[in-house]
Amino acid sequence: MLHAQYFDGRSTRVHAVNLSTDGADLVVAGEGVDIRIPLADIKIDERLGRAPRRLRFNGGAFCEVRDLNALDALLSSIGHRDRWVDRLQRHVQFVLFSCVACALLALAAYRWVLPWAAAQGANRLPAAVVNALSQQTLNLLDGAILKPTKIAAERQEALLGKFRALRLPRGGNPDSLLLFRASPQLGANAFTLPNGNIILLDDLVTLLGDDQQIMAVLAHELGHVRGRDSLQLLLRSSAVGAFWTFYVGDISSLLAAAPAAVVQAKYSQDLEQQADDYAAALLLHNGMSPALLAAALEKLAKSKSGAGAGGYLSSHPSTDERMSHLRQFAARSTVQ
Amino acid sequence: MENASQSPPRSQSSSPHAPEPLQFNGNGAEYFGIWIVNLLLTIVTLGIYSAWAKVRRLQYFYRHTELAGSSFDFHGSPVKIFIGRLIALAMLIAYNVSVRLQSRMTLVILLALAVVMPWLLRNSFRFRLYNTSWRGTRFHFRGDVGGSYRVFLLNGFLALITLYVMAPFMHQRLKLYQHANSWFGRTQCSFHARVGQFYAIYLLLLVAMLGFFFLMGVVGVGHTLVTLGQMQKQGGHIDGKAILRMLLILYGTFILIALVIGPIFQALITNLIWSNTRIGEHRIECKMPPLALMWITISNFILVIVTVGLFTPWAAVRLAKFRLECVRLLPASDLQEFEAAEPETIGAVGEEAATVFDFDISL
User: Fold this and answer.
1) What's the Cα-to-Cα distance from A248 to each of A140, A252, B89, B179, B355, rounded to whole Å?
2) Distance from CA of B323 to the nearest CA of A (A)
3) Is residue A102 part of a domain?
4) Do B25 and A50 touch (CB under 8 A)?
5) Is the pLDDT of residue A309 over 70?
6) Among A82, A98, A201, B357, which is most exposed with the fewest C-beta within 10 angstroms?
């Protein structure tokens, strides 16, 4: 005998009933109710935790059953099987497997899918969007931390001329704009905008002094331009932010804001490596030594304005490793 | 999970006029299984399963919520939620792109979004209520489109141009529109909280925020700014640690406001709203202790961080149980007398249309 509440679907009146089956019909009998319903006409709600389960009949009537074990016995006697999702959710091994699988999938996505998708996205984003994005970023920076340059026009011309004369390994010359700016906060630094234009700060020019070394740093930046790295970084951190919001979003939207900024620095490393390799290849292609970039890095590391907060090296990790890597490049090329 | 209640329905035996508290019987460990499998299937299907996951999540919470010995139910179709999510995603992208690009199209897109939004929100209310039932009788939302535009567009505009002085008024009108247009079967709900009561709580919020900012200013940000100023004057470069410290203090302030003042405000406003809502002649009483909500919010926040998110299902169950069990229904008569709305009384553009055009845009 199985106790249940019967509702007719037209009012909230509770009918206490007993359920039984004779193999072909479900018999619902109790207060003011005595009906038989063919088993084929019953829709059985899946099990969800310890919530009461409903057996739904045509026309909105249903029975609400609390004794889940007795209901299971009745259902198995008529050959009903729970849905697969439902069984998975109660299966301890599968739940544990899900934990591990989720963690592994998240790691794999972070390590391989995200960089790939960001690279694809960065290459497919319409130029109009990228330009607008870059212009806005520049306006924002100009208002806040960038000041007009103090470098003489002739010096600018000379540097621009040398930069434009660089031959790219794949042929042609750089078509990036070189934007001269000063910034007390950022010190000696250079960075690329999503559309490939390069911002060169006064402190970097004066600190390095040597035009060859400045070209070496610009070659590194051209590596970022080629990979559309700043755009990739933007897409990666947006995606991480979006996933985190989805993951803990229903409990706290506060946590959602934090991580994008944190992962960004770690992210740069593989992109830095590629940009260094590209710079080395470009320098060799122009008859210059990759050691020039290493020398530039060394100068930056020794100076306070390059290595301090906001300086070139603070956003470019593990300088020693990079210098030795570049010098190996240079050594190999002289042997050849 | 096998110790299901064996007791027969008690609604017949209990006095018809005794207060009926809401009860929530969900359990964190049980919900964890549902949550993690939902998560896995959502990842594996690249997000498509998330609509089905939402239905299972809502069904878990609705069906474990009981009133007078019977549980609630959620009937929403995952396909409609999926469509709603696609629409919400498209709007989110349109909004973000238009704000970033700032071209002539920006104004057009923002205007279009503003015009569509009230209609979508009304449909979303309808979807949510129509798909909620208790004892087989469904809820309905019958607010008209005009009301939705008044509440969201006109009042939103008023709040904006008065620098949010009218925000409490807008909040009261929104709840009036929502609750007074809600029906349980053939029984209409009503809303009795006055604008003045909203202003009182908002005033408290304002005072608390000002006090908080004053305190934080004295303790942290001011100190850091002074340090920064001194370093600038000495001509040295800015110390990275000072900047980091300032950012941490700002972020910390933001979190503290959300964890301390947020829950207190939320509890007060929830109590006001629900204690002034009636279903026909039946009153509702909501007595959520603000400090207890604050404690739950803070401890959930910390535990979710410490467990890298794994505590999330327990946190959700704990919060739902706390919030729901603060609510009691004070019946004016027998709860067996509600009648479901007959299909023909709803009208041609009523709930039938709701099942075609309505979808849930909330993410």
Assistant:
1) 31, 6, 18, 29, 31
2) 14
3) no
4) yes
5) no
6) B357
Contact B237 A309 (CB under 8 A): yes
B343 touching chain A per CB within 8 A: no
Residue B5, pLDDT > 60, answer: no
Residues A66 and A156 in one domain: no
Q: What is the CATH number of the domain that holds A43?
A: 2.30.29
Q: Do A66 and B243 touch (CB under 8 A)?
A: no
Contacts of A260 (CB under 8 A, 6+ apart): A237, A238, A240, A241, A244
State whether A74 and A134 are in the same domain.
no
Contact A105 B243 (CB under 8 A): no
* C-alpha distance across the termini of chain B, in Å: 30
pLDDT score of A80: 80
Residue B102 binned pLDDT confidence (cut-offs 50, 70, 90): low
Question: Are residue A156 and residue A259 in the same domain, yes or no?
Answer: yes
Residues A280 and A131 in one domain: yes
Gap between the Cα atoms of A43 and B73, Å rounded = 15
Quickly tell me which residue has 């020398």 as its tokens.
A295
Of A22, A54, A82, the domain-final residue: A82
> ipTM greater than 0.90, yes or no?
no
Contacts of A246 in chain B (CB under 8 A): 50
Mean pLDDT of B26-43: 90
- Please give the Cα distance from B5 to B231 (Å, whole number): 69
- Judged by CB atoms closer than 8 Å, whether chains meet at A8 and B136 is answered as yes
All residues of chain B having their beta carbon less than 8 Å from the beta carbon of residue A129 are 97, 101
pLDDT of amino acid B350: 38
- Are residues A198 and A71 part of one domain? no
**B243 and chain A: CB distance < 8 Å anywhere?**
yes
B304 touches chain A (CB under 8 A): yes
B344 touching A (Cβ < 8 Å):
no
Smallest Cβ distance to A49: which of B60, B239, B337? B60
**Which residue, among A7, A43, A48, A58, would best test binding to B if mutated, counting the most B CBs under 10 Å from its CB?**
A48
Verify whether the Cβ–Cβ distance A250 to B316 is below 8 Å.
yes
A185 neighbourhood in chain B, CB within 8 Å: 237-238
Q: Which H or E run includes B278? A: strand B277-279
Query: A66 with A163, same domain?
Result: no
Residues A48 and A169 in one domain: no
d(CA B141, CA B128): 9
Nearest-CA distance from B19 to chain A in Å?
Answer: 17
Instruction: Confirm whether A110 is domain-assigned.
Output: no
Residue B15 has pLDDT above 80, yes or no: no
Residue B247 near chain A (CB below 8 Å): no
Residue-wise pLDDT for A147-195, tens only, equals 899 999 999 999 999 999 999 988 888 888 899 998 877 778 787 888 8
| Tens digit of each residue's pLDDT (9 = 90 or more) over A6-37 | 998 888 899 999 999 887 899 999 988 899 99
Kindly indicate the confidence band of residue A265, based on its pLDDT and cuts at 50, 70 and 90. Answer: very low
Is A294 found in the same domain as A147?
Answer: yes
Total number of domains in chain A:
2
Q: Could you tell me if residue A168 is inside a domain?
A: yes
Write the pLDDT tens digit of every residue in A76-110.
888 887 777 777 777 788 888 888 998 898 888 88
Q: How far is B2 from chain A (nearest CA, A)?
A: 7
DSSP labels for B151-218? IIIIHHHHHHHTTTTTHHHHHHHHHHHHHHTEEETTEEEEE---HHHHHHHHHHHHHHHHHHHHHHII
Q: What's the domain range around A50?
A: 2-82
CB contact under 8 A, B9 and A133: no
Tokens of A119: 């690279």
In a domain, A108, yes or no: no
